[in-house]
Amino acid sequence: MAKLEEMRRPEQGTKAFPMLLYLSAGPLLWAGHLTFVYMAHTAICALAGSPAAATAVLLVATGLFLLPLGFLLFKQFRLARLLGLGEAIEDRSIYDGIALFANVLSFVGIAWSGLAVAMLSSCVLGR
Amino acid sequence: MTAPSELPNKGPRPPGELQELERVWKIPTGFRLISAVNNQVIGILYIGIAFLFFLLAGVLGLVMRTQLALPENDLVSQDLYNQIFTVHGTTMMFLFAVPVVEALGVMLLPQMLAARDLPFPRLSAFAIWAYIVGGLVFFSTIFYDLAPKGGWFMYPPLTLKEYSPADNADFWLLGIGFIEISAIAGAIEIIVGTLRTRPPGMSLAKMPVFAWAMLIFAAMIMIAFPAVILATMLLEIERSFGWPFFSAEKGGDPLLWQHLFWFFGHPEVYIIFLPAAGLVSMIVPTMARHPLVGYRLIVVALIGTGFFSFGLWVHHMFTTGIPSLSLGFFSAASMAVAIPSGIQVFSWIATIASSKERFRITTPSLFVLGFLFIFTVGGVTGVMVALVPVDFQVHDTYFVVAHFHYVLIGGMVFPLFATFYYWIPAFSRNMLSERLGRWVFWLMFIGFNVTFFPMHIMGLLGMPRRVWTYPEDLGWGMLNMVSSVGSYILAVGVLLFVIDLLLRFRPTVENSVDDPWGAGTLEWLPTGAYSTRSIPFVQSRDPLWDQPNLAREVEQGLHFLPGAPTGGRETIVTSAVDARPQYIIRMPGPGWAHLVAAVFMAAAFLLLTVKMVTVAIICAVVSISACLVWGWKLDHGPGGGKVDIGAGIRLPTYMAGPRSHAWWAMMVLILVASSLYISYVFSYLYLWIVSPEVWAPHGSPALPGAGWPVGTALLLVAGTAAMVLTRWLLPEPGRREPAVPLLLALAAICLVGASLAEVWAHWSTGLRPAQNSYGAMVYMGSVINLQVVLAVAVLAGFAIARYLTGKLDQERRVNFENCALLYYYAAGQMLFGLLLLHGFPRLAG
Ligand code: HEM
Ligand SMILES: [Cu+2]
């Protein structure tokens, strides 16, 4: 519970940017994955026309994005510490919960759409 | 939880304090009311106009349903029908759905956050007036046969000059482009408002879900809207000057429009839905008398939807011929976005299930339940059309029309009506009628389903959307008739609501019905024009439930900032995460400059549509001058000293640097500008992938020599250095430093010079923008830079004028900082542009 006393010390409050980063680290990785997959596969299909290369690159990329996210799932406190978010901040457990669930959601998101990459041959026109 | 023993202020409050608050926040009366900026006043205006657009576009929907009730009907002609569905869709999406939720933000956020107003009251008033003028003119085109006919997504080539020669399409492009700008202004307000004007103690984790939803809503607007703004710019430029962005024979690609449009368009539906979901998350706990179950999960769902919705746009393009991997990838992503929405639905159901006693069935809760049902059906058909083979089958049929009305009307109109019934007591002398409300609900619910359910079947039977009539022997007559009857039932429901509104809605700021539902959040505190008497110290997520004496304490002025110590409008700015008080923001009161700016800005855009360029430019100049007048008075300077807000906290009344709200607003604006630029970079690369054969050096004149980009870059670096130097040289208050204006001017000249040099460099190689898509893209880069450069030049001129009048120094430096921040961004963007435009073809060619 917030104390009136704490309101007198604005300088010691939690920093905004690290907190937003902490809460959205997973979704940001998800966004990175989407951007990479979309760009890489468009470029490889258009320029090299090599479905095998596209599939391989995308699978590796999916793995590479899942790796840090998997790490985060188990060690998210490391990230918090890295970002300078102290143990004592107000409502810390709620932020931890939000970050954790967001990471889980992003993990599922990447793995699920990565599955599509693995199963489909890449460069044929869909219609 | 027990009441805190310690309160920020002691009672009884000195005499005259309340009167001072009332005087400062007084709402102008009579015709001067239009100059008002209090959020309750402009909020009601904003909601009212948006609702008017709902009614108007709804009438168009009825006209369409009437036309389609019988086969081979000729109530309206084919051409008029095309205009009608275009204006219906466009109005519903751009003039009703987004504005109305933004309006609810303006109206409700300050109350929920117990702020005296949003941080930039005149900015919201400006956005609202611009929207009103622009929107009304846009809508009225339907009466003069001037309305666009390309459907609400305006695909080229249909909308190119060859196939749409008249001005109709330009009304869409300029009108909607303009409305988007106003929406962005509102988004800036909402972001800074939710992050920085929360009451002391309301950490992010205690923020009401609606505020979370609006925060994410505004962030999504920042990323999504620039894409469609770029698209409308490209299409308008192609229509006016023939730069071939979308013409395949010159290396353009009509699909580029689809990418840009849907990169905005898909998030758009979540932009509409998230705030509505936020509203539902406020209503359900009240009716259940139980805190929201799964607050964290709901916040995660909002964040998740915010992100995921940007990864789906290609599902609108499944039938355009794209690599099968894209199909699979985006199909999977489209299904995944159902997860966060599902989380929310289950949280609401869980909250309803854990009601204390029984879940109260009131009109708002009926609309919420109706929403749950309809939205879920729409979500299920959504997963269906996310499956590529299903989409191949039903694309462009009435199945899709059924689907998106289920999600749009279910997902936002029903929550909106719940909102009206639920929150009107906070702003009116009377509640709306509960008895009539039930009629409204059932008529709307039944009418809705009778109208739109049969459309699923029509679509499966093969009826395409956007047809003005159909032959009798196809056997679609019966279903269409049922659907049309349903639309009239729906209309009667809405009409009853309007009658109820006329009979019982009496807006007031002081004498509203206080908290009829026994809710837990701050908007139900007693209020006046000044918002709450004092700003509460918040210690829980449902303060009114957990701090039982709160309303009384607040009303007695025992919490923060019980008066108006600076003698003007003001509120407390708190830190973004923990909401600790940092400083007092002084806010402007009623005024005319923003009004003039808005009206003339709208006029400028509309006159451009009908090619009255000179008058348009005059209007633009008037508008910009009005903005300068408006801006001149904003910076009060640190002269106010420090003021006491209670609990022994003394806050400064002026703030510059990364803590100030101006700094935050500028950062948000820069994010908007950068997402516009990223859309541009995407378009450049996209057209290169499509038509590498027109790119320099083979398909176009060779690039200018490397001296050009290097020289331009040096200019930019020099300008940036001048700007940095100015910051160091800013004199102490009362002193002079003649180098300051000179350096500012020098920096601005460097920037303008650099942008001209870039244009000249390409021009001198013989490259012309209308030649091919490569040329068009190269010069488009300069067009985009020019916008930012002009803004920086104006800000620099402004800062110089401030310096010369003694209003700019080391402490009073917000005007300089705004200019400098945008300058650094502009220089960065232009440097990147040089790399792209001069480096990339060298690499790729
Ligand atoms: C109030 C009752 C409404 C009725 C009776 C109605 C009726 C219709 C009909 C019949 C069409 C299909 C036109 C065609 O394809 O030929 C349509 C299209 C559309 N409606 Fe509605 N509608 C209503 C409300 C809404 C609302 C609330 C929204 C959005 C918030 C909305 C958004 C759209 C859009 C975007 C289109 C597509 C326009 C296009 O094809 O370009 N409608 N509506
Ligand atoms: Cu979509």
Provide an overview of this structure.
The complex is a heterodimer of chains A (127) and B (845). Chain A has three helices and no strands. Chain A is mostly helical and 127 residues long. Chain A is elongated. Chain B has two domains: 37-504, Up-down Bundle (Cytochrome C Oxidase, Chain A), CATH 1.20.210; 657-844, Cytochrome c oxidase, subunit III, four-helix bundle (Four Helix Bundle (Hemerythrin (Met), subunit A)). Chain B is 64% helix and 3% strand. Chain B has helices at 17-24, 39-69, 78-112, 121-140, 168-196, 209-241, 254-288, 295-308, 324-336, 338-353, 363-386, 388-394, 398-427, 434-460, 477-504, 543-546, 550-555, 593-609, 613-632, 661-690, 707-729, 739-764, 773-804, 814-844, and strands at 569-574, 581-587, 642-646, 649-652. Chain B starts with 16 loop residues before the first helix and ends with a helix. Chains A and B meet through helix 1, helix 2 and helix 3 of A and helix 8 and helix 9 of B.
Attribute tags:
heterodimer, A: 127 residues, elongated, B: 845 residues, mainly alpha, Cytochrome C Oxidase, Chain A, Four Helix Bundle (Hemerythrin (Met), subunit A), two-stranded antiparallel sheet, 64% helix, globular
Q: Summary?
A:
The complex is a heterodimer of chains A (127) and B (845). Chain A is an all-alpha fold. Chain A has helices at 16-48, 51-82, 92-119.
Residue share in helix of chain A: over 70%
Secondary-structure-based class of chain A equals mainly alpha
Q: Let me know the average pLDDT of chain A.
A: 86
Strand-residue proportion of chain A? under 5%
SSE order of chain B, one letter for each helix or strand: HHHHHHHHHHHHHHHHHEEHHEEHHHHH
Bound chemical compounds: protoporphyrin IX containing FE, copper (II) ion
**Residue runs with pLDDT of under 50 for 5 or more positions of chain A:** none
Distinct helical segment count of chain B: 24
Q: What would you call the shape of chain A?
A: elongated
Number of domains of chain B: 2
Whole-number total of structural domains of chain A: 1
**Number of strand segments of chain B:** 4
CATH superfamily of the largest domain in chain B: Cytochrome c oxidase-like, subunit I domain
Could you give a short account of the major beta sheet of chain A?
none
Largest sheet of chain B: 2 strands, antiparallel
